[in-house]
Amino acid sequence: MLMLDMDLRLLLQSLIPSLQSVYVLVFYFVYLAVAGQILPGKVIRGVLLSDGSQLRYRCNGLFALTLLVAILGISAKFGIVSPLVVADRGLELLSATFIFCVLVTLALYVTGRSSSDKSSSLKPHVSGNLVHDWWFGIQLNPQFLSIDLKFFFVRAGMMGWLLINLSILAKSVQDGSLSQSMILYQIFCALYILDYFVHEEYMTSTWDIIAERLGFMLVFGDLLWIPFTFSIQACNCGWWLLHNKVELTVPAIVANCFVFLIGYMVFRGANKQKHIFKKNPKTPIWGKPPVVVGGKLLASGYWGIARHCNYLGDLMLALSFSLPCGISSPVPYFYPIYLLILLIWRERRDEVRCAEKYKDIWAEYLRLVPYRILPYVY
Ligand code: NDP
């Protein structure tokens, strides 16, 4: 009982943000804000909003990330920063980020409510229920100092995930616990995150950017959930592998690589096909003219196999990040299990939205492609 009390007290103490963790966060956000504005990158027009306007996104995430990793790497080499700062202060950074999420979404709520802007991206949607409006947000694409906050937060979350992983990697090298499992986990996640930034422009047509308002749910999801629970919160491989040794056989490693590669092919292939189709509905899919329903929906390629094949690919990738931990504990499988629940929920909401938007065309698409995510199963 005494031990439990002490553990709890230690846990609570490590959750109190120190000044150093606040500096880390401030440096990170300021860097991303400045780099996002000044570094060169392709400027992409977002989807057409209901008032006919289109937002512009500067897709320089890959440049910003590479530069940041280089700056941190050089600073670590010269002893200016410790590469372990994130791994050692994970809980503090987590609670500092949580406080930031609450403050920033309260500010979004207050400024959103008082906005008199009538454009689709800034028009306030106030239900009158404070908790609802704070949770789901009031404006679609609020900005701060000309920075599109939604795009900024998702970028910060994905980069944060890689930075946490790299810090965990440095810690495992330092304490001599680097294993095959850790290497596999790090390679898969790094490839996934880098790929995200190589294809950052595809993000501009995703559900979060085009349909979800910016409230606590999204800010928390981007800034805290993605980087911390996908990696460090004692839930996922990276952190778990620091304390647990796993022996992987060669067939297990090969099978793990296959799950990753097939998952990647399906995930990237499906998202790419939809993106290309939206830009030019005549572009061949797998070398053949596309099957198009009502001139608007793609029903061939991955989108002819299941209505959300991209989710299937993402789920396989998530599984490949956890398989390096073996099957002795369910703890490292937190991310794929969470993602399964999230994507089933999301797919249901998306189908309702599409049924309302496309009406008969959607019904025809359902007839042609009866499976939601996994052919013959779901
Ligand atoms: P999608 O990219 O699948 O976008 C859904 C939208 O695409 C629909 O609302 C509709 O929009 C359009 N659409 C649907 N079917 C068709 C079709 N057959 N032909 C043409 N357009 C179609 O969903 P998300 O934005 O949710 O996901 C994007 C990626 O992000 C996925 O790969 C997902 O796995 C990943 N993701 C990952 C998460 C994570 O935590 N790891 C969380 C959420 C997503 P429109 O009205 O424009 O036609």
Automatic annotation (TrEMBL):
InterPro entries cross-referenced by the UniProt entry: ERG24_DHCR-like, Sterol_reductase_CS
PROSITE patterns from the UniProt entry: STEROL_REDUCT_1 (PS01017), STEROL_REDUCT_2 (PS01018)
Signal peptide per UniProt: none
Single GO BP term: sterol biosynthetic process
GO CC entries: endoplasmic reticulum membrane
Pfam families per the UniProt record, alphabetical: ERG4_ERG24 (PF01222)
GO molecular function: Delta14-sterol reductase activity
Assigned keywords, A-Z: Lipid biosynthesis, Lipid metabolism, Membrane, NADP, Oxidoreductase, Steroid biosynthesis, Steroid metabolism, Sterol biosynthesis, Sterol metabolism, Transmembrane, Transmembrane helix
EC number of this enzyme: 1.3.1.70
Protein name: Delta(14)-sterol reductase
